[in-house]
């Protein structure tokens, strides 16, 4: 399943170790992870989904982040790094990847 991975935010390196608490929190907020993975894979994701996941990632790493401040930081610094982190997290939940 998900293995720990590194991601960057605001010039700082974080190590995310996905666990059941994080997975369930994301599903509670955003719905089933395979459907979320499909949206991110096809480009049909919403900015609120990206921000919510990044906020949860940071919280899981012990860092608090205001949703809108985080959104402003991401909009200013670019979407590439947050999208890479989210896609990395969602890769094991991609239905196509599971059946390959």
Q: Can you count the helices?
A: 6
Strand content: 5-15%
Estimated radius of gyration: 13 Å
Query: What structural class is derived from the secondary structure elements?
Result: mainly alpha
Shape from CA axes?
A: globular
**The biggest beta sheet, please?**
2 strands, antiparallel
N-to-C SSE string, H for helix and E for strand: EEHHHHHH
Integer average pLDDT: 92
Kindly report how far apart the N and C termini lie.
15 Å
Would you report the number of β strands?
Answer: 2
How many domains, in number, for the residues? 1
Fraction of residues in helices? Answer: 55-70%
Pick out the low-confidence regions: none
What is the topology, as strand order, of the major beta sheet?
1-2
Briefly say what this structure is.
The chain has 100 residues and is mainly alpha-helical. It has helices at residues 20-30, 33-42, 47-60, 67-77, 80-90, 95-99, and strands at residues 5-9, 12-16. It is 62% helix and 10% strand.
What does this structure look like?
This protein has 100 residues and is mostly helical. It has one domain. The protein is 62% helix and 10% strand. It has a two-stranded antiparallel ribbon with strand order 1-2. The longest helix has 14 residues, at 47-60. The chain is globular, with a radius of gyration of 13 Å. The protein starts with a strand and ends with a helix. The model has no long low-confidence stretch (mean pLDDT 92).
């Amino acid at each position: 399943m998900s293995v720990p991975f590194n991601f960057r935010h605001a010039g700082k390196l974080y190590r995310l170790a996905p666990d059941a608490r994080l997975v369930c929190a994301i599903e509670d907020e955003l719905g089933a992870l395979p459907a979320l993975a499909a949206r991110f894979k096809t480009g049909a994701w919403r900015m609120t989904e990206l921000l919510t996941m990044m906020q949860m990632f940071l919280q899981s790493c012990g860092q608090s982040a205001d949703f809108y401040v985080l959104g402003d930081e991401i909009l200013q610094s670019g979407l590439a790094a947050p999208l890479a982190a989210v896609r990395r997290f969602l890769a094991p939940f991609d239905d196509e990847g599971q059946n390959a």
